[in-house]
Amino acid sequence: MEEKKGEYVEGLARGLKVLECFDKVHALLTLSEVSRRADLNPAAARRSLNTLERLGYVRRIDRKFVLSARVLTLGSVYLRSANSEELLLPELRRLVGLFGESASVATLDRQEVLYIASYSEQRAKRMMATAGTTFPAYATSLGKVMLSSMGSDELDDYYNKVNLQKLTDKTLNSPEDISKQVALVRELGYATSVDELDYGITSLAVPVKNSAHQTVAAINCSAYSGRVTSESLIEERLEELRVAASRVERVLASHPALMHSLYLPQ
Amino acid sequence: MEEKKGEYVEGLARGLKVLECFDKVHALLTLSEVSRRADLNPAAARRSLNTLERLGYVRRIDRKFVLSARVLTLGSVYLRSANSEELLLPELRRLVGLFGESASVATLDRQEVLYIASYSEQRAKRMMATAGTTFPAYATSLGKVMLSSMGSDELDDYYNKVNLQKLTDKTLNSPEDISKQVALVRELGYATSVDELDYGITSLAVPVKNSAHQTVAAINCSAYSGRVTSESLIEERLEELRVAASRVERVLASHPALMHSLYLPQ
After folding, report:
1. In the CATH scheme, what architecture does the domain A74-259 have?
2. In what order do the strands lie in the sheet with A64-67?
3. Among candidates A99, A127, A132, A128, which has minimal Cα distance to A117?
């Protein structure tokens, strides 16, 4: 980083960490819980919470804090500025119209795939992704496509930071096994995932590239494992998925705000 | 505000203002544009942008800045922590199953209705709301329900802050006309909107109350104006919409993180 000292606002970084420390299991937190989860000293956590409360992003209930619905508006500034759903949903709808089930565009953020847009017949309610959903990259077809764009240093860095877990008994959770798959994905130009993120989900993904041929996103379609196999997805859908990817690439080429919001390989 | 001086982190407030100054028309902004739109001096805007860039929420493209997809994760911390979609979508799906078209739950944030959850047959693609979408309160049935919960001081404050605009030739845009409607909504216990937000949208909304009988949210269903009238919505749907509202009230009563994330009348 080349910015001058004093150009980095610690208070902003801390406040965003405080927002991000809430989740489903930690929806109501005391000051000391926020302090621990955001890795901040109690005084800094208290200043962040007081500020977020005054700005309307956090509510105080007795001695606990919860996020207010205003936090949703932060995600929607991205949706509006990148115009991602309007630009991407037509192509995702077309895929779902052809094949049923669901289709998504995702990018990489930190160690996770981050869904930018998703369209679903809503049959599979359990793991339904919407814009903003994140999943471990190594367990999804979208994520494997993103990992396949990394150089070996970047991939090593990914393994150092990620917490590899067996999400099902099919999940690959060693760097060796994942790297073998990722090399295959690089060679074939597509990735599959069968029951690796959760039982019942089979998916096929291909890269979405920028004008410099770098993978900046991935597009997939998925279906219930009981109805399809990875082989049947490849045979029946790969060609159309590649058509969709090339259309998304053209959309990106003419929409810089969306294009530049995505992951860029180092 | 009763917090001590020094408890308010200006840098955090400024950074959030910077995030919020991006939108569809202003997706790529120079430093001076950010400075003007966020009402910050250039040095403060630059520090915010540098920090947001280093944290991965903003990207720099030549001399312009864009939001990165990571901003989406901020909205999704709310979705995860309030668990709003999982808790509210079943009831919205039931309404859409009965009546078709779309149904939503929204609350009030600043001068706007803020959609918490929405379910749609996707027929009306143009104004499709998703979680995080905001619309002017005075032009929507959901918003009129929220305004009807305000005392007269709070409503005066609303008129002082809001920018009343004619969005269609049906939009009420004077405090007098809106107040008359709002008084009627209070008396009837429901609100309608016909082509006031946009041509073609007719909707019916009822309040969702907390255990102290305060309106904290609203639930609506909407349809294409060519197929329904506000009278037909009231006749055919009001009863089921009230059933849905009372079920949502029971959900809120047992889910404090969602309950306390919503608007509370002063």
Report:
1. 2-Layer Sandwich (3.30)
2. A29-30, A64-67, A58-61
3. A132
Interface subset of B 30-89, CB within 8 angstroms of A: 46-48, 50-52, 54-57, 59, 61, 66-85
pLDDT tens-digit map of A127-167: 567 889 999 999 999 999 999 999 999 999 999 999 999 99
Hey, do B10-68 and B74-259 end up sharing a CATH topology, with the first three levels equal? no
Q: Please tell me if residue A5 touches chain B, with a CB cutoff of 8 Å.
A: no
Instruction: Report residue B167's pLDDT band, with 50, 70 and 90 as the boundaries.
Output: very high
Average pLDDT, integer, range A28-41: 97
**Whether the complex's predicted ipTM surpasses the cut of 0.90:** yes
Q: Is the distance from CB of B205 to CB of B218 less than 8 angstroms?
A: yes
* CATH code for the part of the protein at A10-68: 1.10.10.10
What's the whole-number average pLDDT of chain A? 93
Give the nearest chain A residue to B131 (CA atoms).
A72
Query: What are the CB-based long-range contacts (under 8 Å, 24+) for B166-171?
Result: B167/B136, B167/B139, B167/B196, B167/B197, B167/B198, B168/B195, B168/B196, B168/B197, B168/B198, B168/B199, B170/B194, B170/B195, B170/B196, B171/B138, B171/B139, B171/B196, B171/B197
In residues, how long is chain B? 266
A162-171 pLDDT tens trace? 999 999 999 9
Q: What CA–CA distance (Å, rounded) separates A172 from A178?
A: 6
Residues 108-147, chain A, touching B (beta carbon < 8 A) = 109-110, 114, 116, 122, 130-134
- Taking an 8 Å cut-off on Cβ atoms, the answer to whether B28 and A133 are in contact is no
Residues β-bridged to residue A112: A109, A136
